[in-house]
Write a structure and sequence with these properties.
alpha/beta, binds magnesium ion
Length: 208
């Protein structure tokens, strides 16, 4: 039995693919304009990665020029999502379970908050933290440590639930916190995790 759980947002509570075409319209248009400096293949891969990872990491991975990186960041910084959104069907099993919940998500502050509003999940959480590389160098690991500190939790009191072995899962592991990897497409069979499942609702049995 855990005292609290920490959830990721993108691809954990809702699928980014469900909003990507509307959301990234203007960003993808901008990426297409980088054809002068990047190959078509690179642009295609960068677009796909944007559905899974923070923009800054994608820009670095695909060697965007400093100018291109900044232009993309400027577009994303002002972006909000204002169309209806839905959580994964199974998320209700998590939200309906009475345990203290924290939301920790990486991305642009305005955009992440707009998604939280559209999903109508704000009241599910005791605290919500947006890790925004444009605003602060703090990482998910820093925020997890702060949550433990502020609430007097030990690592064993917590479970971190997310979809990315390199992000929240890694941060939690480094702090000795148990992890639940939600891996609906079995993309990460070799990830180092405490628990892993294709079904989000399986997390309930782990923390309750
Ligand atoms: Mg995620």
């Amino acid at each position: 039995m855990k005292k609290a759980i920490i959830l990721d947002l993108d691809n954990t509570i809702y699928p980014v693919s469900s909003i990507a075409s509307d959301l990234f319209d203007c960003v993808f248009e901008f990426l297409d304009s980088l054809a002068v400096e990047l190959s078509a293949e690179t642009i295609h891969m960068a677009k796909e990665e944007m559905k899974r990872r923070p923009y800054q990491q994608v820009a670095d991975q695909y060697n965007f020029s400093e100018t291109a990186k900044n232009t993309g960041a400027a577009i994303l910084k002002n972006l909000e999502y204002d169309l209806p959104m839905q959580t994964y069907e199974e998320y209700k099993h998590i939200s309906n379970t009475p345990i203290i919940k924290f939301l920790v998500t990486t991305g642009f502050t305005k955009l992440q908050w707009s998604k939280i509003k559209q999903l109508d999940i704000e009241r599910d959480f005791k605290d919500i933290y947006i890790v925004d590389p444009e605003v602060s160098p703090a990482t998910k690991k820093d925020i997890f440590a702060m949550i433990m500190n502020n609430n007097h939790y030990q690592p064993e009191d917590l479970l971190v639930i997310g979809d990315d072995p390199e992000s929240e899962i890694k941060a939690a592991t480094l702090l000795g916190i148990d992890t639940f990897l939600f891996d609906p497409d079995s993309r990460h069979p070799h990830a180092i995790v405490t628990h892993s499942s294709k079904n989000l609702k399986d997390a309930v049995a782990v923390f309750s």
